[in-house]
């Protein structure tokens, strides 16, 4: 009513505006009657032969959540119907869903697409880019949607955007298509999108329920954000450990786009965000010009959102620091990454501080900014192409000025090294073999297991970001991790090269190494503990009823020393397998696990223990359950699941906390508690767990589970409290009146105390079975928390602990660093016949922290063998 009164009194222009507003309001209120016109620009005509989304998917966009199969179905239909679009399947998700890309450009460009592409990528090659005529070249624009599957407005908007790009008519769109090659990814995370759409669609009422308490708005664990193994794919662009990322990174390098967009959602009470993020939190390796261009592109979003009357903000949140994020990864490669964040209706309609937030409204903002980016890319085309060309020219000049000329990398473990090279090669980094053995800073790198990455190459900045250690930061707040030094994460030996060394053969496609059978003995087989996949071999043997022993003392055989942790498979001492079968298994280990198998003909060598020595302990096959669901962290549990399932091929029961509470756990001998809080474990279940452990069970906990073991009385893993600062520090100050600080700084000061993820060096006792297979007593660990465990009093109870200066790379606040120093990161405790092991840090972080995976596996295989004296 009041609006009508205003309308009558208002001048003509104002009336027009209000009529539009009222129309939009009524459309968005009657969401079930939403139609295509709500989304699309009004003054555009559409080609009638192009099918609308509704005609293919069976509902209007925004009425239901699009499922991934229907989404792909529509994209296939457009591929057939439009000569502007060609679709290809570039990969398969873990759940076998297609990862698709649509190349969208003018029909004329489609006819010369390979020529356009090969000319475009020359912009990244300073030896060729000088002669290119930028005015004649299209820009390349990679549009990506909903990498977090439950941030679905992006993927749903992709239906509208794809329809618009296929069907819109007129000089504007034709000019855009002539001047742009669009790489269009409708769903960055197919498995997550499918999971989320199933949830919200199956819980939607006919009468829309906007109550945030309704089941529609409260997804079940683990939620649709993640991929199949509960990984956040928006942290995987750099290391690309998942098939979705591998496919898109390949596409990225095939085309080297100028702009990459990344459509997300944030909290329901927010509005709309577009980048730039907080300028002080931009990675220093990203040129300032990137920020300038991002801001300029931002003016296009602002104008478009102003026109439809949507609220938005920019610069205040999010950042461009970690290059593993979709909107940051492009920034270190001459491209501009743009993050969009839309307030989430997380369902079809939900109450918010801004009134009822309806799904179609969220979709429209995403579509609107997809188009505003397209306009910006076109109007800034030459500027963006020029920027890309300059970026690579400058990279080459900067590499020349860098005092470091490259890095040399090697390892006794060829598999870990292979996985590192594979990751680097995926990012188009040139890798070379070395000519002969090299000694750098006193460390010897052997020719057959060492490589060089020279800095003087187009990917200089990316390489630098991967290998550098960083201790200085402009800001102390991080949206994600503050360090990811990859040679440390992979647990490799490496040194910076201050003078260039002569390069050997260039490696274009690293080959997975194979092991060898060494020797012709028929008495026993022996496997060293250094190989990454040794635990996989161990499990396979145990699963085939082979008796496997591990040595707790070094021994010699055929003139070679074998370290603690070496596996022994005696040929005669087997009940269930023949010597012929053993031969087959050993061959399989050499071929599949890349591990050398030694054969010996005698058990005697006086320099060490004999093969029949009591210091060899017999391994038991692990029967593993891992707690999931409830308040267990999905990403942490997912990392362990992925590690056991895909790398080591060891079965693990994913045991929901509620089932754990009520079931008999005696079929397991190993139970893993990932990071999480376990307040929902019942008292009865706690007792059951205690009894189970006392009678020989193995408990392994990570991060805050360590605290729970302590409070549940399963182990004495005491952590440092708030005021447990070392004497002379602010210890007592917490009880005194603190210095007054501005209210406005609350958030920032609190944020600065977070340890979002940094790398520290721990001192290891390599004679402890939990650390078998490591070659250096200093081991790099990834710490994403403020959990600091007190050292235990026992002489053997601190096998892995931080010393006086453990920080290798990344950010930690001063008070937290004081607590971290001289703390323990591995607790070991005996409870009856059982063992309890607690790690304060993440040993399987994002599937690229290969270096610490072995500790997880050692805990599983050797935990039960630990001497009872080891207790805390
Ligand atoms: Zn997101």
Largest beta sheet, briefly? 7 strands, mixed
Number of strands: 33
What's the rounded overall pLDDT mean? Answer: 93
Strand content: 15-25%
Distance between the termini: 74 Å
Helix content: 25-40%
Specify the structural class. alpha+beta
| Cα-based radius of gyration, to the nearest Å | 29 Å
Number of helices: 26
- Bound small-molecule species: zinc ion
State the low-pLDDT regions, or none. 1-31, 725-733
- Shape descriptor: globular
Q: Output the strand order for the largest sheet.
A: 1-2-4-3-5-7-6
Topology, pairings included?
Blueprint: H1 2-9, H2 12-29, H3 36-39, H4 53-57, H5 68-81, E1 85-92, E2 98-104, H6 107-111, H7 113-121, E3 139-145, H8 153-167, H9 171-179, E4 180-185, H10 190-202, H11 243-255, E5 259-266, E6 272-274, H12 288-308, E7 336-343, E8 349-352, E9 355-358, H13 359-379, H14 381-401, E10 406-410, H15 414-426, E11 431-434, E12 438-440, E13 443-445, E14 450-454, H16 460-467, H17 486-489, E15 493-497, E16 503-507, E17 517-518, E18 524-527, H18 534-543, E19 549-551, E20 555-557, E21 560-562, E22 567-570, H19 579-593, E23 597-600, E24 616-618, E25 624-628, H20 634-647, E26 652-656, H21 657-662, E27 670-673, H22 683-694, E28 698-702, H23 704-711, H24 746-751, E29 758-764, E30 778-783, E31 800-809, H25 814-820, E32 826-831, E33 834-839, H26 853-862
Parallel strand pairs: 3-4, 3-5, 5-7, 17-23, 25-26, 25-27, 27-28, 28-33
Antiparallel strand pairs: 1-2, 2-4, 6-7, 8-9, 10-14, 10-15, 11-14, 11-16, 12-13, 18-22, 18-23, 19-22, 19-24, 20-21, 29-30, 29-31, 32-33
Helix pairs in contact: 5-8, 8-13, 12-13
Bound molecules: zinc ion (ZN).
């Amino acid at each position: 009513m009041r609006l009508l009164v205003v309308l009558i009194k208002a001048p003509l222009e104002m009336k027009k505006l209000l009529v539009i507003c009222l129309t939009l309001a009524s459309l968005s209120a009657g969401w079930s009657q939403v139609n295509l016109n709500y989304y699309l620009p009004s003054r555009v005509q559409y080609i009638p032969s192009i099918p609308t989304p509704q005609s293919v998917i069976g509902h209007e966009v925004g009425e239901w959540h699009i499922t991934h199969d229907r989404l792909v179905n529509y994209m296939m239909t457009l591929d057939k119907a439009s000569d502007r679009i060609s679709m290809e399947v570039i990969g398969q998700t873990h759940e076998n869903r297609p990862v698709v890309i649509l190349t969208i450009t003018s029909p004329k460009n489609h006819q010369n697409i390979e020529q356009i592409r090969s000319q475009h990528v020359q912009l990244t090659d300073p030896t060729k880019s000088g002669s290119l005529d930028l005015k004649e070249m299209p820009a390349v624009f990679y549009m990506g949607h909903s990498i977090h599957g439950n941030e679905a407005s992006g993927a749903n908007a992709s239906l509208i955007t794809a329809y618009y790009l296929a069907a819109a008519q007129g000089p504007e769109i034709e000019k855009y298509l002539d001047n742009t090659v669009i790489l269009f990814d409708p769903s960055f995370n197919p498995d997550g999108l499918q999971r989320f759409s199933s949830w919200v669609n199956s819980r939607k009422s006919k009468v829309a329920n906007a109550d945030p308490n309704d089941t529609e708005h409260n997804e079940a664990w683990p939620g649709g954000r993640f991929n199949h193994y509960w990984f956040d794919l928006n942290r995987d662009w750099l290391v690309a450990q998942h098939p979705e990322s591998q496919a898109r990174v390949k596409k990225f390098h095939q085309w080297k786009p100028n702009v990459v967009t990344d459509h997300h959602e944030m909290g329901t009470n927010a509005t709309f965000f577009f980048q730039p993020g907080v300028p002080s939190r931009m990675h220093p390796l990203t040129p300032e010009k990137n920020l300038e261009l991002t801001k300029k592109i931002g003016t296009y979003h602002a104008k478009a959102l102003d026109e439809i009357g949507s609220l938005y903000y920019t610069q205040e949140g999010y950042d461009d620091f970690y290059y593993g994020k979709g909107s940051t990864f492009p920034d270190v490669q001459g491209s501009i990454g743009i993050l969009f964040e839309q307030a989430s209706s997380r369902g079809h309609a939900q109450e918010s501080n801004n009134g009822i937030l309806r799904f179609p409204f969220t979709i429209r903002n995403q579509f609107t900014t997809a188009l505003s980016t397209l306009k910006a890319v076109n109007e800034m085309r030459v500027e963006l192409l020029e920027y890309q060309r300059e970026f690579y020219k400058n990279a080459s000049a900067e590499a020349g000025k860098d005092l470091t000329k490259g890095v040399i990398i090697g390892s006794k473990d060829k598999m870990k090294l292979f996985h590192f090279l594979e990751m680097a090669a995926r990012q188009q980094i040139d890798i070379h073999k070395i000519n002969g053995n090299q000694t750098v800073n006193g460390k010897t790198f052997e020719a057959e297991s060492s490589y060089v990455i020279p800095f003087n190459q187009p990917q200089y900045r990316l390489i630098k970001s991967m290998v550098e250690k960083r201790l200085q930061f402009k800001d102390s707040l991080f949206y994600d991790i503050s360090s990811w030094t990859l040679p440390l994460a992979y647990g490799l030996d490496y040194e910076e090269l201050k003078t260039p060394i002569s390069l050997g053969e260039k490696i274009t496609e690293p080959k997975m190494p194979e092991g060898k059978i060494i020797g012709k003995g028929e008495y026993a087989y022996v496997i060293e503990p250094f190989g990454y996949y040794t635990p996989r071999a161990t499990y396979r043997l145990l699963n085939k009823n082979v008796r496997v022993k591990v040595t707790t003392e070094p021994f010699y055989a055929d003139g070679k020393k074998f370290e603690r942790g070496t596996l022994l498979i005696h040929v005669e001492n087997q009940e269930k397998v023949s010597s012929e079968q053993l031969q087959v298994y050993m061959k399989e280990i050499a071929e599949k696990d890349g591990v050398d198998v030694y054969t010996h003909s005698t058990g005697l060598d006086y320099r060490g223990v004999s093969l029949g020595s009591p210091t060899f302990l017999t391994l038991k096959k692990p029967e593993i359950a891992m707690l999931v669901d409830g308040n267990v962290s999905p990403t942490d549990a997912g990392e362990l699941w992925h590690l056991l399932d895909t790398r080591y091929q060891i079965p693990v029961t994913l045991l929901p906390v509620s089932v754990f509470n009520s079931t008999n756990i005696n079929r397991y001998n190993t139970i893993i508690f990932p990071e999480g809080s376990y307040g929902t474990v019942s008292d009865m279940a706690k007792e059951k767990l205690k009894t189970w452990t006392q009678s020989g069970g193995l408990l392994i906990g990570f991060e805050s589970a360590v605290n729970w073991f302590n409070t549940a009385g399963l182990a004495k893993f005491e952590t440092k409290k708030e005021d447990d600062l070392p004497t002379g520090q602010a210890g007592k100050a917490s009880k005194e009146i603190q210095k007054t600080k501005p209210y406005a700084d609350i958030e920032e000061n609190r944020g600065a105390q977070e340890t979002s993820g940094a790398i520290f060096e721990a001192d290891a006792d390599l004679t402890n079975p939990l650390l078998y297979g490591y070659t250096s007593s200093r081991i790099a660990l990834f710490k994403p928390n403020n959990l600091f465990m007190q050292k235990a009093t026992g002489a053997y109870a601190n096998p892995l602990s931080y010393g006086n200066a453990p920080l290798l790379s990344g950010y930690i606040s001063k008070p937290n660093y004081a607590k971290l120093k001289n703390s323990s990161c591995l607790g070991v405790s005996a409870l009856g016949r059982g063992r309890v092991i607690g790690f304060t840090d993440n040993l399987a972080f994002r599937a690229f922290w290969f270096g610490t995976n072995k500790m997880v596996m050692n805990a599983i295989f050797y935990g039960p063998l630990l001497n009872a004296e080891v207790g805390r």
